[in-house]
Specification:
This protein has eleven helices and ten strands. The chain is α/β, with parallel strands linked by helices.
């Protein structure tokens, strides 16, 4: 029995309190879903599920947010339709992507509906910093909002996960996010770790951030990027897996070292006729999109197998 499985299933409450959380996931949770943003050009839920199943994914990481596959205000009506379509296609909806940043009626409706359908994970929105205001005061405000979210998570038994998105956001550098998760100390509030964004923020020291946030990782996002010259400036450009600067060999070895076994969401942020940006109408043959997805999925599955994950 590995460390995560033991902690997640056998440790007593008193020991959990002493060690400040680390509520682990069992080893069979490492299933691969696709972030449905890249498939917004498929509005029909049955066709969406059939397409995802045909590519070879285990499930859909569904957008339940403004301009998503399911609108938050229509979640009670539409999310059950997606889940049913996925059941027919022999895949699942293990996770959703939301813009939830605080406890409010819409957030509660989304979480209540998702939980009732057996969905166990969701990604939160991002807290953005106003650089004209005191940063630490904003961190404290974000912490209070997350406490409210954690209370909703507990009420509906669903895990809320904050992505370490690069830029002027809470969690981009990891150091500001970890203390919040440690203080709130909830088994249902954690991080959706994104090694792509971690690499972009700190290409040479992202590993330190990973080791810090590792106890709170509840899901992971997979994608790649490279740096190219445009107008005499070095800029970030999405690319297929294995063609960029993300050190997946090192990253996967760390996942294995720490026995991290959590749901995976695969993202596609390179040029795919607008699909990469969530376009409802794309400018290339749909087969080009699904072929690219299948290629990246095959590559990643091969890496997992080679790493022993």
């Amino acid at each position: 029995m590995n460390r995560r499985h033991f902690i997640g299933t056998a440790i007593t409450g008193s020991i959990l309190a002493k060690n400040n959380i680390v509520f682990a996931k069992p080893a069979n949770e490492m299933k691969i879903s696709v972030f449905s943003k890249t498939l917004h050009w498929i509005p029909d839920y049955n066709k969406l599920a059939e397409t995802v199943a045909g590519i070879g994914f285990d499930g859909i990481d569904l957008t339940v947010r403004p301009d998503g596959h399911v609108l938050p205000e229509k979640v009670a009506d539409d999310l059950p339709k997606v889940v049913e379509a996925c059941k027919k296609a022999n895949i699942s909806v293990p996770m959703i992507v939301t813009n939830i940043l605080e406890a409010n009626p819409i957030s509660e409706l989304v979480l209540k509906t998702a939980s009732s359908l057996g969905i166990k994970h969701y990604r939160m929105g991002w807290y953005g910093f106003d650089v004209k205001k005191d940063i630490l005061t904003q961190v404290a405000t974000f912490e209070e909002k997350m406490r409210g979210v954690a209370a909703l998570n507990k009420k509906y038994n669903i895990s809320g996960e904050y992505q370490n998105h690069a830029g002027l956001f809470l969690g981009a550098t990891i150091w500001d996010l970890e203390p919040i998760l440690k203080k709130i100390n909830s088994p249902l509030l954690g991080c959706q770790y994104d090694v792509h964004h971690a690499t972009h923020e700190s290409e040479t020291s992202w590993e330190i951030g990973f080791r810090i946030i590792e106890p709170y990782i509840k899901s992971i996002a997979v994608k790649d990027f490279r740096r190219v010259l445009k107008d005499d400036k070095l800029v970030k450009e999405g690319c297929p897996l294995g063609q960029g600067v993300v050190n997946y060999s090192k990253y996967l070895s760390l996942l294995k070292q720490y026995n991290v076994s959590v749901p995976i969401t695969m993202h596609f942020e390179y040029k795919l006729g607008g699909a990469e940006n969530g376009a409802k109408n794309i400018t290339i043959d749909p087969k080009e999109v699904t072929t690219a997805m299948k290629k990246d999925l095959t590559v990643f599955k091969g890496w997992l197998k080679d790493t022993g994950l």
